[in-house]
Each structure stands twice: as C-alpha cells, then as structure tokens.
Write a structure and sequence with these properties.
The chain is α/β, with parallel strands linked by helices. Helices cover about 40% and strands about 15% of the residues. Helix 1 (about 15-30) crosses helix 5 and helix 2 runs parallel beside helix 3 (about 90-120).
C-alpha cells in the first residue's frame, strides 16, 4: 500500500486533462515531487513539479525519463490517444500507432521503471484504461484499452513478488478535450483523480471511476450482445 504523502510520482500525459488533475491531486495529498510529462517540452512553475518531454513510442525517450526520475515511487500511465474508428474501415497505420501508444507505451514505461521500483520497495504502477475496454462497438480505441486491461492484470501477477502494486483504472467519459465531441454525461477530471488516488492509497487492484464503469464491470457475465457502446 502506497502513501502519497512524501512520495515521488511520475504522471505521463500530465500536461492537461486527467493527467493535470492527477498532478494537482498528488500535490494536494503531499507528494514530495511530481514528474509530469508531455509530448513536447512545457513549463510548470510549481516547485514540486518537474516537467519532462516523453514519447511513449520511443524506448530511448522512456530510458531518459527513468534516468531523470531515479527517485520515482509511483508511476501513472495516463498518456494515450483516441482513435475510435470502426475496425473494418480503420486505417491500419493509425491503428498500429494507437496500440503502440495505448498498450506498448505503458508496457515500455513499466518495463523500464520496474527494477527501480523493486529496489525502492513498495512502489506502485497505475494504468489508465477505459470502460470501452468492455464494450463492443468502440473500435480501435476500445480494442487497445481491452489489451491494456489484460496487460495490467498480467503485470499485477508478475510484479506481486516484487511488492509493486499495480492498479487498473476504468472510467467512462472524463470531461477533457479528448472527448469534447461526445455529448454524453462526463466526470470531471478532478473527481476522477480523487477516486483514482483514493484507490491507490487503499491498496486496490482496480478502480471504477463512475457509475457506467461500475455497471459495466458487473455485467461482464451478460450476453455479449448486451455490452455495446451506443454514443
């Protein structure tokens, strides 16, 4: 179980949206330092925040982040991309890039940071997935998040002997630029960040951020035809 007060955390995709809200909430709970990453260099004037450019598709970029954050104890894999194209008409190159960012990106980060977290003891990894991992009809994005769910569950088993907590997060729509085009009920980034970090500090394996995630998770034994995303 991780105590946020006094810890050092890394938040990928920490420049805006849910990532920025997670940075704010980590600081509010007493984090000693937060490394916030974005695709391009950016600035944050708060003394406990250090910003870094990170391309999760680049192993070298990930290695540089590990070298810059040797004191990291909590890793939050929040960086991602939305490409909800139907599978039969999706551009294969964009689909491959989506899986590279949403699935292999977190895996690169986990592989690179796991030895450091194991040496520190009692570290944690948080992977931000989506309720769309469980709903048919969400195209390439949903498929990538389903892969991330499976990856997270397997990592939890592999990292348990090293005493590293692995937390999988599932949420419906969070009110960020990424989903601005969808006219559906949304959770605020601040409320989502609070729920996620509550689960982290409680030692949970999974966090369901909102009602749709709770209902969908409970319905996974239902007929597959009932589990469809209908925007």
């Amino acid at each position: 179980m991780v105590a946020i007060d006094g810890c050092t955390a890394v938040v990928t995709g920490g420049r805006r949206g849910l990532g920025a809200a997670l940075v704010d909430e980590l600081l509010a709970r007493g984090a000693r330092k937060v490394y916030a990453t974005g695709q391009e260099p950016f600035e944050d004037s708060r003394p406990r925040v250090e910003t870094r450019a990170l391309q999760v598709r680049s192993a070298e970029s990930v290695r540089r982040l590990v070298a810059d954050a040797p004191d990291a104890e909590v890793i939050i894999n929040n960086a991602g991309v939305l490409y909800p194209a139907p599978l039969l008409t999706a551009d294969i190159e964009r689909s491959a890039a989506t899986f590279d960012i949403n699935v292999l990106g977190p895996l690169r980060v986990c592989q690179a940071f796991a030895p450091l977290l194991a040496r520190a003891g009692d570290g944690a990894i948080v992977n931000i997935s989506s309720v769309l991992a469980w709903l048919a009809g969400s195209g390439v994005y949903g498929a990538s998040k389903a892969a991330l769910w499976s990856l997270t569950n397997s990592l939890r088993t592999e990292l348990a002997p090293r005493h590293i907590q692995v937390l999988g997060v599932h949420a419906g729509f969070i009110d960020t630029d990424m989903v601005a085009q969808f006219n559906l009920p949304k959770t605020t980034p601040q409320a989502a960040a609070t729920t996620i970090l509550d689960g982290l500090e409680a030692g949970d394996a999974e966090v369901l951020v909102d009602e749709i995630s709770i209902r969908t998770r409970a319905s996974l034994s239902a007929d597959v035809h009932e589990l469809v995303f209908a925007p």
